[in-house]
Amino acid sequence: MRIAELSRRSGVPVPTIKYYLREGLLPAGELTSPNQARYAEVHLHRLRLVRAMVELGGLSISAVRDVLGALDDPEKSLHKAMGTISAAVAPPDLGVADEVAQQQVEAFLDRQGWVCRPKSYGYKALVGVLATAREVGHERFADLLDGLARAAWPLAEADLDYVLSAGSTDEALEGVIVGTVLGDAAMAAVRVLARRELSGRRDAALSDLGSNAPDPDPPKP
Amino acid sequence: MRIAELSRRSGVPVPTIKYYLREGLLPAGELTSPNQARYAEVHLHRLRLVRAMVELGGLSISAVRDVLGALDDPEKSLHKAMGTISAAVAPPDLGVADEVAQQQVEAFLDRQGWVCRPKSYGYKALVGVLATAREVGHERFADLLDGLARAAWPLAEADLDYVLSAGSTDEALEGVIVGTVLGDAAMAAVRVLARRELSGRRDAALSDLGSNAPDPDPPKP
DNA sequence: CGATAGTAGAAAGTTCTGCTATCCATTCTA
DNA sequence: TAGAATGGATAGCAGAACTTTCTACTATCG
């Protein structure tokens, strides 16, 4: 297929495709002559993946390049790819050095029995979040972490099962990308829905806000 | 306190504070003379909140303005504020009209017994995610939704408890902001940690990637 | 009192990102 | 063989988030 068809089928304008080619987000098409190239389904697929990361994940072009680099790495390692992807998706390191936040994270990891190098992106990101929470006067925020962990564990299991059920290494790596980028977006959306649903069920309490009335025995789903 | 102290205590440069004042993210200080203003603790607090949303939440200046608008709304409604904040935090509406994705969301909501107007941000965001997943060839992605919901429900309860335990309406609204913005960031970080932990425990399976070996009886936490 | 530093407010400038537009020399297509 | 499309290169553009520069003060220290 030629670039016009690639554009039509993906909904991405031709100049943008050229831009992605320049930026190395898309492999070059097969040149049939000095100024003609042919693109295959793989290009269309890659293009859609790029758009998903940019539009839904909000990743920058360079972050997308990093992620795809992990995918195209000849010595593909799922571990390494996961690290790269986490780094690309996470907000840039705030570089905070908050003692208390760090202790809160350590204590949390202890409680969970999780082993974790303090250099990992997840660790640093979490310290950054807790430090920020403390700055805005929400020290108690750390109390929510165990709940998050209880929720995150089965998700991680599902994610990993999803990834490991892939037929090929390429598919598995793409599963990591999709699981991370779309997974985060989906989780955020589901949380919004859950909050809406719950706050609807607790309407009485809400309309009575500030009175600190006792919980009206909320029904579980 | 004067602007220099505000800057020192928040770590935000003076010109940036002036910029935020111009953009309406920060209420003006109390003018003591035509070119002197005094700022109070509330300004410092608000400034930190703004930075948290910008740096951690990745919100744009205009999104922050919207969110703060909900906080400063005279007829503060928790419901309304939650909607505004969800909208500000979510990626801009993709405006997809994918029939299948919509049905998947409907079915999901049915299974959960959740009632939801199809106009809500969470609904639209979820349709967008599933449509994108389908575009990149991951129809099975919808299978993960129920797991997400199971995880999201107790989180929503914890969130709401956290919010309702606030002493004042202002605090409650701020709790919604912090719970949403920091909560999403924290959840993403914890997911990363959980994935790392789990993939470490399943190392055997991972180093054997692609062979589709049976799961080596992973230990639970 | 005067020198120095800080301030509000406005306007213009800067940097970065993510595209678009314009060319040109070719090449495919009708 | 005319007209549209293509690859590749370069330049341009709009928006976002600051940052700089300016003016006309004001506060304060010695």
Task: Give a description of the structure.
The structure is a homodimer of 221-residue chains. In chain A, helix 3 (41-56) runs parallel beside helix 9. Chain A has a domain at 1-56: Multidrug-efflux Transporter Regulator, Chain: A, Domain 2, CATH 1.10.1660. Chain A is mainly alpha-helical. Chain A is 66% helix and 3% strand. Chains A and B meet through helix 3, helix 5, helix 7, helix 8 and helix 9 of A and helix 3, helix 5, helix 7, helix 8 and helix 9 of B. Chain A binds a DNA duplex (30 and 30 nucleotides) through helix 2.
Oligomer: homodimer
Q: Biggest sheet of chain A, in brief?
A: 2 strands, antiparallel
Tally of helical runs of chain A: 10
Strand-residue fraction of chain A? under 5%
- Biggest interface and which pair forms it? A-B, 96 and 95 residues
Task: Give a quick set of tags describing it.
homodimer; 221 residues; mainly alpha; Multidrug-efflux Transporter Regulator, Chain: A, Domain 2; two-stranded antiparallel ribbon; 10 helices; 66% helix; DNA-binding
